[in-house]
Amino acid sequence: MLKSKCMLAAAIGMAIAALSLNAQACSTVVVGKDVSATGQIIVGHNEDNDLRIVTSQYWVPAADHKAGETITYR
Predict the structure, then answer these.
(1) Tens of pLDDT, residues 10-36
(2) In Å, what is the CA distance from 26 to each residue of 14, 18, 43, 55?
(3) How far is it, in rounded angstroms, from Cα 36 to Cα 57?
(4) Distance CA 20, CA 12 (A)
(5) How many domains, in total, are found in the chain?
(6) Which domain holds residue 30?
């Protein structure tokens, strides 16, 4: 019984590890002007899909919205 549980745990662990090796994910980091050493906003973005892709970054000013309101951004 203990051996079968260990084998099952090992199989699940290897399956999860195998999935993570092929993961394709991007990351964006935004540093606000109040916390950057230069006082400027810093944006960093990486692409994990082996291509050079230019991504647009947009600044949208804060606004008050009604509860349940849907905003469409283009």
Answers:
(1) 777 777 766 666 566 777 888 888 998
(2) 24, 19, 13, 11
(3) 18
(4) 13
(5) 1
(6) 1-46
Question: What's this model's pTM, rounded to 2 decimal places?
Answer: 0.41
CB 60 within 8 A of CB 74: no
Token couple for 19: 């999935």
Is 4 a domain residue?
yes
Q: What sign does the dihedral 32-37-38-42 (CA atoms) show? A: negative
Q: What percent of the chain has pLDDT over 90?
A: 8
Instruction: Select the highest-mean-pLDDT range: 10-19, 35-44, 58-67.
Output: 35-44
Asked whether residue 16 is domain-assigned, the answer is yes
